[in-house]
Design brief:
eleven-stranded parallel sheet, single chain, mainly beta, 0% helix
Length: 125
């Protein structure tokens, strides 16, 4: 299980959207995804998402755990943990189990926090 202080190593990444990559559409996936490029659309993930410092997501995200160092303009649903790192920026509403916002991070939107036992919806469609 993903712990609040656990760091996801690069060895565990199943899908990578690289720094010079732009992607548009709806992404359904399982496992760990890292986005270092630009994504326009919706991410529905049965797993964890890592957004690198140069990464940008314009659209909604559903995942178990999310670590953001880049920018998200859209709504986020994390059934467990959302971590907004110091370089991270979120513009949109969040619905999460746990939240960590580091110093200098930006969050502009509404937050709905639930006990992770109550937030049982999965990221599958």
């Amino acid at each position: 299980m993903f712990k609040r202080n656990e760091v996801i190593s690069n060895e565990k990444i199943n899908t990578l959207i690289g720094q010079n990559t732009k992607f548009e559409g709806v992404l359904h996936a399982e496992g760990v995804i890292r986005v270092d490029g630009e994504f326009h659309g919706e991410i529905i993930l049965n797993g964890n998402l890592i957004l690198g410092e140069e990464g940008k997501i314009f659209g909604n995200i559903t995942a178990h755990n999310i670590v953001l160092s880049g920018m998200v303009n859209g709504n986020i649903k994390a059934s467990n943990l959302l971590r907004i790192c110091s370089s991270g920026k979120v513009i949109g509403d969040i619905h999460i189990g746990h939240l960590i916002v580091e110093e200098k991070a930006v969050f502009s939107g509404k937050c709905k926090m639930q006990d992770s036992n109550e937030c049982t919806e999965t990221a599958t469609t």
